[in-house]
Amino acid sequence: MDLLASTLTALRPLSLLSINQSLLALVTAYFLTKFLLSNNVKGPLPPGPRGLPVLGNIFQIPKFQWLKYTEWMEVYGPIFSLNFAGSRVIVVNTHEVATDLMERRSNIYSSRPRLIMGSEILTGGVVIGFIAYGELWRKLRKAGHEGLNMRAADKYKPLQEIEAAAVVVDIIKEPDHWNDHLKRTAASATLSAVYGWPAIESKDDPLVNRINDIMHRVMQAVLPGAYLVEIFPAMKSLPTWMAPWKKWGLEWYKKDTEMFQGFYDGVSKAMFDGDYKPCFTSSLIERQEAHQLSNHEAAWLAGSMFGAGSDTTSAVLSVFILAMVLYPEVMRKAQREIDTVVGSGRLPTFADSPNLPYVRAIVMEVLRWRPVTPLAVPRRTTEDDWYKGHFIPKGAIIIANIWDPNVYPDYDEFRPERFLDDEGNHVTPQHTRGQGHVTFGFGRRACLGMNVANNALFITMASILWAVNIEPARGTDGKPILPSRTDFVDEAIVVRPVPFKCRISPRSSDITSILQIAKKKLS
Length: 523
Ligand code: HEM
Hints:
There is one protein chain. This protein has a single domain (40-522), classed as CATH 1.10.630.10. Helices cover 50% and strands 9% of the residues. The protein has 18 helices and eleven strands. Protoporphyrin IX containing FE (HEM) binds next to α7, α14 and α17.
């Protein structure tokens, strides 16, 4: 069933054409594929499963493809190659190989696959996460880094503490809607950090929906086979009257540009009036000239941050709730730590962080245990390369499978202790840049927002653990119903646990006082 579903997804564009057009497209694709794949191979590619002519291995890629890649690693080793209907794909299956290529040879492995519809048409080729490695990317990355590096991330901490208090109130009031509250807080915290806006009240806020729609459109557009123009790039030059998909994409790009420009100008005006909250956009405005960014580039850089930060953060928080339901002893141990350091009279703050090593280890373990970006974001090589006797051609798509069971034999167990030594100091394995995991990616294209994300995760998890117990839901017979530990919703790049029920209750019978403490922070 899964195979069928993914095949249908891959072939969906062909169903939009007539049979004759489809046949013509297939025949052309076949000869083009043969030509392209045979011409740039100068040595033995990494091994890989045999596929069909033309379509290659796309029929063999099931739902949750990272699990299949991990399985294939047993057969083909830590690096293997696939053919996705003409695109050469190299799957890198261990942190070690990923580090060798994407960190140590990052001058070759830091570009992204060309996405004509998702990047060039729908978003004007200006979204930092999607564009090729080059001058524009360097400018955007430098400006983004300035607003999100470790020191800059400190600026957002007061806002993040307030958001954490708000989520405690929400979860206590409506425990069954915990997932919605986590989505709301992730969206709200990201928008506050980017534009300095006050907290949003609902996950269905019309503005949040409007921005989420952009992400949805782009994610649909980047699915393999969603648009024929990806196979036949020359179609990009068709006039819009012959290419309704192009007209549609350009119209959205215009509307989305107007929206992001409006947000950007709003912050600019607030700064002029002297009535603004320091945020990512205000720093960008102050330094726009120094970074040589046009208004348009700066407005899209700020706008792109919501898409990159909101869903990822809320998915990690859902994994956290899943882990607490499945591993109650971990929850209790963290609560004992919080009780000793923080006590019951106030919420945890960032100042407590050095004294809460176990909670910080939980953040790392949540990111490691069920990486919400199990295949990171694909890369593209910009030069031919050789690695351990294998040839990796220029233009190959590189997928890093973060789901690497080699680092820990008990990789499927949720065990924050793996990151702590006997003295309570953090220990992290090789090839993880001191993070304990590689869920934020690798090298020059690693996540720009990781400091902001780590801080948001720490304070939200600490505050939730301080306030409530998280337990399995109970059936009518009173027996616990454990959620699945292996079922996911794959949203193209971000993967989250399937929605599940659990029982969330205040830790103290004195709910009023918990609420008072949290609300005090909000006033
Ligand atoms: C826990 C939450 C997050 C996770 C798991 C995550 C994960 C990732 C991953 C895997 C990549 C691709 C890295 C690669 O190619 O090696 C990425 C890129 C990126 N992330 Fe995040 N991210 C998170 C939160 C955020 C936040 C909060 C922001 C901004 C406020 C952000 C901004 C970005 C940007 C701009 C890029 C593109 C970087 C580039 O292509 O140069 N992320 N993220």
